[in-house]
Amino acid sequence: MVLFGGCAAKQYQKRDDLAGRLFFIYHTNVSNKLSEKKQVWYNETVVEEAILSVVKPQSLSLVDTISAGYQALNRRPWALLIPVGVSTYLWLSNPLTLTKGGRIATGINQALDLLTTNPQARQGVAEQILHRDLRTSLAWLNLVPVLDPLTPGRNAIHIGGPYAVFSTLALINLLALLWSCLFLALLSSAVRYEPLAPVPLLRRTFQVASTIIVATLIIVGISIIVGLPLFAISALIVIFVPASALPIALAWYIACFWAYVYISFTPEAILISRAGPFRALGHSIRVVRHNMIGTVGLLIISFLILNGLRLIWAQVAVNPLGIAAAILGSAYVGSGLSAARLEFYRDQVTRFHA
Length: 354
What we know:
This protein is mainly alpha-helical. A hairpin with a 5-residue loop joins strand 1 and strand 2.
């Protein structure tokens, strides 16, 4: 019995030694693997136990996006000089309007004669068009938030010839594009946490301006190629079925709205992703497609804020001090929303690359 018990004890001891050696080898291999650097899904290096705490970044809410936009603006407060300067110029200088007896005004009246037979309605629309300030209504490439004069200015400068109007259109949009690109370049450098350097900033401004011009030409070309045949078909349908005029007009409005939504982040793609015109259009469409609710929500909130505050600025701008306060407030609010668009695009692109 003693001999049998001694043999059994030796066998149990050998088993314990073997189990201990296997546990030591297993623990050593696991420790070596944990100590190695791992590459996780967003290409950041994570070491050891931190691998277990990796969490995929969530998209910013609209409130966080707008807050981040104003934080970026606070890092570049001198960007406000551009919208403040442009708004001050619009308020202090003479407006630019069409001559009532000019060739373009005559063409407008003839077009209104075809659209309506009510002389009072025709005259009211014509007066509204002819009294509009061309400095703002023709600035199609302006991306700077400005506060238009809330009351019609006096001593307006009148232009009537088509060559004068087209020359004015080209000059206004060229200037608007340059100060818009400088303004957005300042904001994008704050969003990207880049140091501010005057010479690279100016160089970047002209690069962005040239890219936006090419992207605009691409959009105009596609619109002509696709839109003209559809417009001709719509006109024929309206001629033969007059009752379809309202549904067709509504369909065109909806199509133009969604086209604007899908390409609305092209400037942000040029600034944040440093993309060319074609890639910028593609990035904008991709951002909208992947986060449609967030995109539409940001656009609607921005629209409501700007147009709602416009009613407040109208009540404030009743004297020189009120005008100055309205210009400063409008510039700050609008610039913060412009920076929020850049933050929104950057957040979406970060999630794509993740």
